[in-house]
């Protein structure tokens, strides 16, 4: 069966589907049966058959078209995906610059390093992420080479429920006991294996001591919930689906980055 035959079938059965039943009259294109009683079942059968053959026509037409233009279709699909990826990357880069300017002015964002430094790295991380722990080692190596760097820490608790507990504790410790935040942060990052909620509470208590009760209360505060939500908003804005990720001078750098690469991107 060729395309011409299929077109003839389509024309024939399209005519069959032109059926109407009104006031006990039944008619089809090119003929009439006004004196006969209308048979709804017959009309419905014709419509069903016409729809069936139209479906078959569309199936064979698409099949023949794809067979003759397969490579063109593949090229068009690949071009569409490439364009979407390019637009997504451009949008993420633009948003990274916006987020960078906003975050470096936000004094509530936890940080490690030189408080007054303008050499700022924004790290997006999860306390239960293995690559984030490796990245933490690189940050410490960076501090050994330069002491004029400030690292803003954006908690992105996407790994587990324990990650969310750790993120809340991180934000709360920084808010209520900033002097001991570095100790708390590095204890969590240096913890071997996956961190449990109890690990978080134990480390928070060991780090903050007399401020532990205030930290626990702050973990469940509205302010902390809003900070967590703001982190999720940043992930969506930058189209980040994994950790770690960095923003330096407004440029988004996804994935693990060694200390040497971080140094190159600083002033």
UniProtKB/TrEMBL annotation:
Thioredoxin-like fold domain: residues covered: 110-264
InterPro entries attached to this UniProt entry: Thiol:disulfide_interchange, Thioredoxin-like_fold, Thioredoxin-like_sf
UniProt keyword annotation of Ligase present: no
Pfam families linked to this entry: Thioredoxin_4
Keywords per UniProt: Membrane, Transmembrane, Transmembrane helix
Residues spanning the membrane: 44-66
The keyword Heme belongs to this UniProt entry's keyword annotation: no
Name of the protein: DsbD-like disulfide bond formation protein
Organism of derivation: Candidatus Deianiraea vastatrix
């Amino acid at each position: 069966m060729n395309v011409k035959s299929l077109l003839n079938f389509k024309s024939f059965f399209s005519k069959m589907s032109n059926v109407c039943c009104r006031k006990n009259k039944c008619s089809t294109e090119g003929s009439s049966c006004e004196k006969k009683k209308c048979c709804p079942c017959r009309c419905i059968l014709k419509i069903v058959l016409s729809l069936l053959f139209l479906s078959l026509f569309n199936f064979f037409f698409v099949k023949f078209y794809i067979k003759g233009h397969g490579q063109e279709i593949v090229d068009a699909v690949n071009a569409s995906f490439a364009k979407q990826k390019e637009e997504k990357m451009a949008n993420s880069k633009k948003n990274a610059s916006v987020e960078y300017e906003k975050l470096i002015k936000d004094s509530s964002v936890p940080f490690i390093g030189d408080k007054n430094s303008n050499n700022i790295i924004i790290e997006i991380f999860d306390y239960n992420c293995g690559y984030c722990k490796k990245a933490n080692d690189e940050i410490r190596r960076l501090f050994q080479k330069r002491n004029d760097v400030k690292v803003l820490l954006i908690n992105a608790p996407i790994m587990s429920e324990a990650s969310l507990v750790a993120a809340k504790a991180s934000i709360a410790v920084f808010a209520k006991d900033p002097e001991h935040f570095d100790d708390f942060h590095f204890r969590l990052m240096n913890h071997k294996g996956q961190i449990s909620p109890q690990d978080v509470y134990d480390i928070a208590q060991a780090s903050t001591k007399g401020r532990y009760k205030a930290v626990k209360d702050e973990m469940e505060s509205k302010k902390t919930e809003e900070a967590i939500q703001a982190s999720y908003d940043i992930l969506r804005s930058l189209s980040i689906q994994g950790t770690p990720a960095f923003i330096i001078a407004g440029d988004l750098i996804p994935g693990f980055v060694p200390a040497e690469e971080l140094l190159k991107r600083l002033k």
